[in-house]
Structure formats: structure tokens, C-alpha cells
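Whiteboard transcription, Tuesday session. T.W. wrote the C-alpha cells on the left side:
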């Protein structure tokens, strides 16, 4: 190989030098620029070059040296940026470190279980907007204009809505019954749907209350729908979610949009009905409201109450999740504390 070929070969080697290994930069320096390094040896050969070629070869070899220096600096910087290589022997049999994986939020897990149970009964899932007008959240549901639920105490009103619907008393929905109004207005019976979603109420935040929470409400409208079917559906729901040993009981109640209305209690999962602080020593915990859809509501939504009847129910997801996972404080659901959330990472279902 003549001098020119050897310079070209070393140039290629400089360009191709790899930064793999902790000593990559240092071994490059020794190989190229050390006392017997390839660049050093070439520079030594300048002495043997005929005098008339010295200037041109001098320049060429100095460039080569400069390129080697630059490459060395680059390799040093690359190697320094790498994470430290562990010392000692590498145990190839050791299990790999577990990558932290994300998980579904407990509220999502419980919502999925609830919707799963009703899907298998033939219910569809309906969604609607979180910012609602007065008609869908209250008016169509028979809330009289002076009903306390419309009061500033309970409802977050939204200002500044422009365009169509402006001035219609927009608010953050206080329940997902608003979605049921939309479904009835848009569809024809038979209707079997549930509406999961986030709702808002102007409550002081504490261990037992929050200004945002999640509901799943259900609606069934058809010919000859009876209260017995409502009760049977809810009993099936509770037994599927909490086990065949659980029971429900209904207490008369009042909602503007259902008649008759009831509050649903279930046997306390925490003490098996023996009495504890969660059930206030009664053995029962309230889990939802329900009732037969008021004929006036059917009429408001364009469904003939002389032909059709229906039932509706609505539950708070946080409350159900609390009974499943024994979460003592509602605020934990919103704090995003990883120590809380990672307990659900494998979808573990503690009951
Ligand atoms: N919408 C009611 C609430 O938010 C729950 C409910 C739904 C009650 C359907 C009866 C029937 O409290």
C-alpha cells in the first residue's frame, strides 16, 4: 500500500470508529494518536517524503491528525453520556426488572364492570354532554321551576354561552338522567340504555362528598314495563357484582321524574349485615335511586305514556367502588397518588 492508500484507510477507520464500551474513546486515542498510533506512524513517515512533496503531504497528514482529534472528542462525549456500566459479573439468569405499567383507575374498572353487567342484559351505552341546558337536566325531568335542585347550592351554572341556546340556564349536569332525556327524544321504544358519566354538584369536598363524581343511570322503556322487572333487574345486578349472597331492599322515596320512586339499599358488604360504621350499624347501605318513569316525563320526551311505561335507576360509581375496594375516603379517587393507584395495576378485585 502506498502512502496515499494508507492515509485513506486510516481516514475511513476514523470515520467508522464506534462509541461502544466504556473505554471506546481511550482505545481510539491509543490506536490512532498514541506513540505507535496509526496517525502518529504516518506523520513520522513525512521525513521520508521527497522535499518537493513535503508541503502537500504535511497538510494532508495534519488534516488527518485533526480529524482523529475531533473524532476522539466526540467519542469521549458520547461515552460520558452513557449510563454507567455495572461492575462485576453479569448474572444472565437474573429476572429482568419489571417495567412499571399503568393501570385503569378504580372508577374506570368499576364502571366497566357495571356497564358489562347491563350490556349482557341488552342495554346499550349512551353518552351526552357534561355542560347541559336547563331542559335536559331539569325541565324535561319534571323539576318545577322553583325546585331546590336548581338552586345555586347544588348546581354549577355556566355563563357566557353564545349562539343557539344562549340564556337557557346552562349548567354542569347534576346527573346523567339528562342523557336519558336525549335518548328518549331521539329514539323510539323499546329503549334499554345506561348512561355512565361524570356529574357535578356544588358540595363541600370531604371524605364522604365531592363536587364531581360518576354515575351510571339506566332506563328501560317499553310496553308493560313493571316495577317487579325493575326490582328483579336491580337484584340481578347486585348479586352479579357483589355475589349471590347479597340482597337489596327498596324504601319509598321521591324524585321528580319517577313515580313511584324508591331508594335502593343493599346488604352491607363490609360487615355482612352485622353492622359497622359504613352501614351505620344498620346492616344496609344505600346504593342508588330508582322508580317508574313519570308519565309526564315520557310525554315531555315525545313518548306516549298511554302506550309505554318504563323504569329508571341511577347509582354513584364512587359509592359502589367504595363497597368493593373498601376505600375509606372519596378524595383518594381524585388525588392521583400513585401509592393508591398502583394497587389496581393488575385489575385486582378485592371484595
Ligand atoms: N338522577 C338521580 C340522582 O342523580 C338518580 C335516579 C335516577 C333516581 C333514575 C331515580 C331514577 O340522584
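and on the right, the sequence the group agreed on:
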Amino acid at each position: 500500500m502506498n502512502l496515499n492508500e494508507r492515509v485513506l484507510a486510516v481516514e475511513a477507520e476514523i470515520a467508522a470508529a464506534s462509541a461502544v464500551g466504556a473505554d471506546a474513546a481511550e482505545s481510539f486515542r491509543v490506536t490512532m494518536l498514541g506513540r505507535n498510533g496509526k496517525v502518529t506512524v504516518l506523520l513520522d513517515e513525512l521525513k521520508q517524503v521527497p522535499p518537493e512533496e513535503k508541503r502537500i503531504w504535511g497538510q494532508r497528514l495534519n488534516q488527518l491528525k485533526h480529524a482523529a482529534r475531533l473524532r476522539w472528542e466526540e467519542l469521549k462525549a458520547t461515552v460520558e453520556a452513557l449510563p454507567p456500566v455495572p461492575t462485576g459479573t453479569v448474572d444472565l439468569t437474573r429476572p429482568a426488572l419489571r417495567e412499571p405499567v399503568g393501570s385503569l383507575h378504580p372508577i374506570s374498572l368499576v364502571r366497566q364492570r357495571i356497564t358489562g353487567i347491563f350490556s349482557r342484559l341488552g342495554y346499550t351505552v349512551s353518552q351526552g354532554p357534561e355542560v347541559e341546558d336547563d331542559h335536559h337536566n331539569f325541565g324535561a325531568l319534571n323539576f318545577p321551576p322553583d325546585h331546590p335542585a336548581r338552586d345555586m347550592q347544588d348546581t354549577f351554572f355556566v355563563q357566557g354561552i353564545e349562539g343557539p341556546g344562549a340564556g337557557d340556564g346552562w349548567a354542569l349536569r347534576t346527573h346523567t338522567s339528562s342523557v336519558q332525556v336525549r335518548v328518549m327524544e331521539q329514539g323510539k321504544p323499546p329503549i334499554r340504555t345506561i348512561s355512565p358519566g361524570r356529574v357535578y354538584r356544588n358540595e363541600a369536598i370531604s371524605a364522604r362528598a365531592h363536587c364531581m363524581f360518576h354515575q351510571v343511570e339506566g332506563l328501560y322503556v317499553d310496553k308493560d314495563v313493571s316495577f317487579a322487572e325493575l326490582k328483579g333487574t336491580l337484584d340481578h345486578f347486585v348479586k352479579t357484582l357483589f355475589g349471590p349472597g347479597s340482597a337489596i331492599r327498596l324504601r319509598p322515596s321521591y324524585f321528580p321524574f319517577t313515580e313511584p320512586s324508591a331508594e335502593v339499599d343493599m346488604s352491607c358488604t363490609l360487615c355482612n349485615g352485622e353492622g359497622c360504621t359504613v352501614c351505620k350499624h344498620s346492616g344496609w347501605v344505600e346504593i342508588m335511586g330508582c322508580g317508574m318513569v313519570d308519565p309526564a316525563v315520557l310525554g315531555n320526551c315525545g313518548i306516549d305514556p298511554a302506550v309505554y311505561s318504563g323504569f329508571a335507576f341511577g347509582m354513584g360509581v364512587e359509592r359502589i367502588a367504595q363497597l368493593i375496594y373498601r376505600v375509606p375516603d372519596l378524595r383518594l379517587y381524585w388525588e392521583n397518588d400513585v401509592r393508591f393507584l398502583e394497587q389496581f395495576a393488575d385489575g385486582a378485585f378485592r371484595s
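Someone added at the bottom: The first helix runs from residue 3 to 16.
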